[in-house]
Amino acid sequence: MPVRRLDPILVDRIAAGEVVERPAAAVKELVENAVDAGAASIEIAVEAGGRRLIRIVDDGRGMTPEDLELAVERHATSKLPDGDLFSIDTLGFRGEALPSIGAVARLSIVTRTAEAETGSSILVEAGVKGPVRPAPAAKGTRVEVTDLFSATPARLKFLKSDRSEAQAVAEIVKRLAIAHPTVRFTLSGEHLTAFTYPPEEPGEHGFLRRLSRVLGSEFHENAMAIGVEREGVRLTGFASLPTYHRGTGTAIHFVVNGRPVRDKLLLGAVRGAYADVMASDRHPVLAIMIDLDPRAVDVNVHPAKTEVRFRDPAFVRGFVVGALKEAITRTAFRASSTGGTRTLESLRPQGALPMRQAYPHRTHAIRPTSAFANWQAPLDAPERPHANASGFADRQASLSDLSVPSADSRAATQEVEPEAGEAPLGAARAQLHGTYIVAQTQDGIVIVDQHAAHERLVYERLKRERASAGIARQLLLIPEVVDLDLVDADRVLAEASSLEELGLVVEPFGHGALLVREVPSALAGGRIKALVQDVADALAEWGQGAASPLEERLDAVLSRMSCHGSIRAGRRMRPEEMNALLREMEATPLSGQCNHGRPTYVELKLTDIERLFGRR
Q1: What is the DSSP code string of 349-375?
Q2: CATH 3.30.1370.100: which residues of the chain?
Q3: CATH tag, 200-330
Q4: SS3 254
Q5: ∠ CA 330-333-339 to the nearest 5 degrees?
Q6: Which helix (H) or strand (E) holds 522?
Q7: Which of 117-121, 376-380, 531-535 has the lowest mean pLDDT?
Q8: pTM
Q9: CA–CA separation, 80 and 95 (whole Å)
């Protein structure tokens, strides 16, 4: 078959498949054009998920009739004045979006500059360009795309439902709204919840307000500020506390020189920074802007311009990891504010109304359930109104064990130092079920998981020792023999030298057996067999992720080991021990979450507790 030139319209439709793969991609290209035009307000409307209609209206600079005629030609752009592809400071630059959209749909553009007395319009239908005509128009540009992919019906089969496509459009607009907080964004249409993000003032406070509107109001009080600069690269933005996370990575936003990107290098940097404080199946919430010399990043990697390539990827990755780790460490023992909210929701009886609404006129006493039948108030106790028992019928069985108190109230008999009550985590008042410490703060209470908290403290202590003079070891009076699976035993012995640096000294002792001679001093008295088995499991994960840095691998092993030197759940603690644990948590970075990313404490404000009991 002879070689021949393709029809120009067919060429445009092929190119459109690279640039406009779905309605959301068309919205992205058109909104980016509006941002590049200096728009302060952008309105987006879609119908049928964008398949039937996409309308973008902006108040930017607009175009002259001559520019409008060229704008719908392939590879015509105003964004490369000197033709330098290595110094791009705009969002669009290829000159492909408008002709690609016009090749597969009906494209109408109406535009006017501030100097022009009248506007101009043009119509492109299935790749056929019409003439430029005068038209009434406000300053800026109005673009309408109707019947998307009508010229290529086969592509319609690959679109998802109208609702799914509309949600994809909303996600694109949200990412662009985060990247440009000083611009007003309005989105409306079918199958989505309309929203408007008002323009914010430039700077950190305006950016945080925009993030709170897009990512949720809770993000504001659970965010860590990031602002660092090194070697011409500047990082600014906010990242969530380790205990504030999501089930997917959709709330991770990176903006490179004003361009929202989904870059594997940056996503890997986030995972590396949070690996020590968050479970592997959870993801943080963050929005970080990276500003650097345009020549240090290649944005011409993919037609959709969602990926970038850095000239020095190792430096950028390390810079992002370091900035995030510094922010996480700086927050010290802070835990997310949502822990207290979830606790209150779990305490509130399901379907129960506030007491004053449910029984506005009830004054007689409520007959106690069997769990409280033998309880009598102290003789000197003042008479109090009875609380509403509604909503607890389904919990009666679980409350039956309260006839035998499980709270150790010895902490309340201990004289509390005045400064302890003023400390962030307050003064210990009781221990519940041998597992949870209840402390009183100036304006509420704190509930601490003693095992999770001490696990983090031991882990941080081991890391400090390794970084300074080496982990202190304790020689076992009687070495312990540990039997393992043959593969696990070989794996542990192969890393014996690395484990010795971590304070664990092992040597072979027959077929599939190890002899443990020394353990880290911080773990003395723990279950050695379980310790060695956990180490073997951590080493097995090394093989699955061998590309991870050695520092991260050693920390992973220390994290497993520290669990075995922690205060176990079920152990009764003396008042001075509980208060010492609280003070050490306040002084230890990252103590707001355990090694697995779970919160170590929740805080309940007094106002929230009063609201729970209908006092507010």
Answers
A1: PTTPPPHHHH-TT--SPPPPPGGGTT-
A2: 404-616
A3: 3.30.230.10
A4: strand
A5: 120
A6: none
A7: 376-380
A8: 0.73
A9: 10
Characterise 38 by phi-psi region: left (phi > 0), alpha (psi -120 to 50), beta (else).
left
β-strand pairing of 233-240 with 259-261: unpaired
Residue 222 amino acid letter: N
φ/ψ of residue 483, rounded to 5:
-90, 130
Amino acid identity of 523?
L
Given this model, what pLDDT does residue 321 score? 94
- Is CATH 3.90.1150.10 the classification given to domain 404-616? no
**Amino acid, res. 355:** M
Separation of alpha carbons 355 and 344, rounded Å: 16
Q: What is the DSSP string of 311-322?
A: SSHHHHHHHHHH
Q: Specify the CATH architecture of the domain 8-196.
A: 2-Layer Sandwich (3.30)
Residue limits of CATH 3.30.230.10 in the chain: 200-330
Q: Is 613 helix (H, G, I), strand (E, B) or coil?
A: coil
Burial 203-216 (b: 16+ CB within 10 A, else e): eeeebbbbbbbbbe
Task: Report d(CA 463, CA 480) in Å as an integer.
Answer: 25
**Overall average pLDDT of the 18-44 stretch:** 91
**The tokens 């067999």 sit on which residue?**
529
Q: Are 105 and 49 in contact (CB under 8 A)?
A: no
Euclidean distance between CA atoms 501 and 467, whole angstroms: 11
Copy the structure tokens of residue 126: 């299935």
- The residue with tokens 């669990």 is 563
Instruction: Identify the CA nearest to 514 among candidates 541, 480, 558.
Output: 480
CA distance 102 to 99: 5
Q: Which residue has the tokens 């323009």?
A: 199
Question: Which has the closest alpha carbon to 528: 510, 515, 512?
Answer: 515
Rg (CA), the chain: 31
Tell me: pLDDT of 144 over 90. yes
Cβ contacts of 519 within 8 Å, gap of 6 or more: 473, 474, 476, 503, 504, 505, 526, 528, 531
* pLDDT surpassing 80 at residue 34: yes
In this structure, are residues 571 and 312 in contact, taking their beta carbons and an 8 Å threshold? no
Please, are residues 29 and 145 in contact by the beta-carbon 8 Å criterion? no
Residues 6+ apart with CB under 8 A from 303: 18, 19, 94, 96
Q: How far is CA 59 from each of CA 100, 101, 369, rounded to the nearest angstrom?
A: 23, 21, 68
Which whole number is the average pLDDT over 317-338?
82
Q: Alpha-carbon distance 482 to 536, whole Å?
A: 12
Distance between CA 181 and CA 469 in Å, rounded?
Answer: 48
Q: Which helix (H) or strand (E) holds 584?
A: helix 575-587
Residues of the chain with CATH 3.30.565.10: 8-196
Q: What is the mean pLDDT of residues 319-330?
A: 92
Q: Residue 362: which H helix or E strand, with range?
A: none
| Both tokens assigned to 332 | 């010290």
Decide if 283 contacts 251 (C-beta within 8 A).
yes
For residues 105 and 148, is the Cβ–Cβ distance under 8 A?
yes
Q: Which two tokens stand for residue 321?
A: 């990891």
Order of strands, sheet of 505-508, starting from the edge strand that comes earlier in the sequence: 473-483, 513-520, 505-508
pLDDT greater than 90 at residue 569: no
Q: Is the pLDDT of residue 348 over 80?
A: no
3-class SS at 232?
coil
Strand ranges, E, within 356-472: 407-408, 427-432, 436-441, 444-449
